[in-house]
Amino acid sequence: IEFIQALTMEGSKSKDKKPEITETEKHKMDIEETKKSLPVYPFREDLIAAIQEHQILIIEGETGSGKTTQIPQYLYEAGFTKDNKKIGCTQPRRVAAMSVAARVAQEMGVKLGNEVGYSIRFEDCTSERTILKYMTDGTLHREFLSEPDLASYSVMIIDEAHERTLHTDILFGLVKDIARFRPELKLLISSATLDAEKFSQFFDDAPIFRIPGRRFPVDIYYTKAPEADYIDACVVSVLQIHATQPLGDILVFLTGQDEIETCQEVLQDRVKRLGSKLKELVILPVYANLPSDMQAKIFEPTPPNARKVILATNIAETSLTIDNIIYVIDPGFAKQNNFSSRTGMESLMVVPISKASANQRAGRAGRTAPGKCFRLYTAWAYKHELEDNTIPEIQRINLGNAVLMLKALGINDLIHFDFLDPPPHETLVLALEQLYALGALNHHGELTKLGRRMAEFPVDPMMAKMILASEKYKCSEEIVTIAAMLSVNSAIFYRPKDKIIHADTARKNFNHIHGDHLSLLQVYNQWAETDFSVQWCYENFIQYRSMKRARDVREQLVGLMQRVEIDMVSSLPETIPIRKAITAGYFYHVARLSKGGNYKTIKHNQTVMIHPNSSLFEELPRWVLYHELVFTTKEYMRQVIEIESKWLLEVAPHYYKAKELEDSTNKKMPKTAGRSTMTV
Ligand code: ADP
Ligand code: MG
């Protein structure tokens, strides 16, 4: 690939400072010295004084300055956890919450889960003794249900505020409100970038505390022409850097686990073929579903005379700081959840990042020494095609979950809720309509008894409804398993490149004629029969870790079922009740077979297709229900079951009218019809 250097991103005044400490040297120092080397350290007394003086403080400092790991420790040292109160710190990402808590526990010399812990969805690693608690923003949002005044906290830090996730945005409104009637509660809003003024204005002109960054200049390079295949371009760029550039680690930004795994395999393969001509290249992935012991590897020092390449998702943009990165490769894409209020459809797609993101990514190269950032797009594309900023989640995703939570907190007037940026009116209305159709709200927009029970479950409203409907259809055992499996779904089947045929055959053995939810159920139940055997997973190309996680999630869901007093009963071998319970939650996600093997969604007539991985890919039932849509080259339905249209009238009579569902003969189309245009 040919790159052209376009500009150099300014470094800060770091030139006058002492030479930077390299990562290897840093590891030789003890923890105390490492802590002292962080940019926030010289400001700790001023910072504590500012917190003592003001109830709300906005903290701005570049990624890696020590905001997340150090500030809670300073607060602890300054006595903020006396009187049995905790310090809370929210993170938009699960991985960040876990990783940071582990680091802080290590720095404080305590066992993770004791004084320092974390709490994320379906996983609570805290105890009575916990005084520093890291959690996802979603978890804190949920804590409001049991502790509306956050009475057990003396300080709450809303961290990574610039990420502007839906939960963080809603937390802004909630914590601002509490701060008014809990004057002793300290509130810190911490952010990596330039939004500090905006946060300050929102929080009644709260003062801004700036931690000056240390940043070295970063040379920015663009490709001469657009790259058709950015994964391949990443591989080539990594090898070019490795062959021609001085030692220093590389950080590559990809969009998700699949891409990272592909890139890792190709890279390993090419490196092997190059043999001993090059220095050692240590390739490490990092993404949300990666087991935590593997995640910890990215923080280990690079072996002497070797180079580390980290293949990461967006998580390495600001949530996690990996030291010693000198080269950044940025293909310019990220995965984003998008919701169209016009079609009511939500789907995960790969989209171009914003200029702000591109600059954050580049900045990762200049933390410990001058660096280089290789953008796999043209300078023209950067200038003309990228938006300035990423649109906050609240303005682009489905608000069903958020609205249900707010209603459960007794906040009825959502139009006048104190939003930093309000969501579009249509999206809010659509969420209310959806909750009404699910039976969670009555026609006055008030929470129903069903809605209150739904809010007990830390899942989206459709899944909550499905779980609760399992009571009526007497299949709670199965539905809880399916819910747990869906929550880890993408990572269940293992498909190594050198054993694709074996893996695919193994997978086909689990295929259920009525669809993927039931296939997942079979996987789980067969595994349970072997007493949760590791060996069985290995033989069947099933990811053991994912299954273990599904088991944990399942256990938690069963606990919640007990709370809402639903008995655990099984309907097997009958699957109709199971599919009806799923339909009771997901009746929005229904499509009917049309021409050419395509499907059309019922309400909006959108063209969608069954994902090639589905057990129904060759069956093409007339009516299907899908769990989610993924947009790649086409809009695909992932996790699909066959349903009967008359069930829709049974489970959602206020949403579907018999007329819409006409031609509902449940006969399947002949297999050959409509297949002609498809290539498999
Ligand atoms: P900020 O929140 O300002 O971005 P952090 O507090 O996350 O900064 O990071 C401060 C320092 O701690 C960085 O040098 C980072 O590399 C290091 N660090 C953070 N987490 C870990 C970890 N799990 N292992 C080793 N070092 C870590
Ligand atoms: Mg941080």
Automatic annotation (TrEMBL):
It catalyses: ATP + H2O = ADP + phosphate + H(+). Its EC number is 3.6.4.13. GO terms for molecular function: ATP binding; hydrolase activity; RNA binding; RNA helicase activity. One of its GO terms (cellular component) is catalytic step 2 spliceosome. GO terms for biological process: developmental process involved in reproduction; mRNA processing; RNA splicing. The keyword tRNA processing does not apply. Keywords: ATP-binding, Helicase, Hydrolase, mRNA processing, mRNA splicing, Nucleotide-binding. Residues 48-212 form the Helicase ATP-binding domain. Residues 237-410 form the Helicase C-terminal domain. This is RNA helicase. The chain holds residues 212 to 891 of 891 of the full protein.
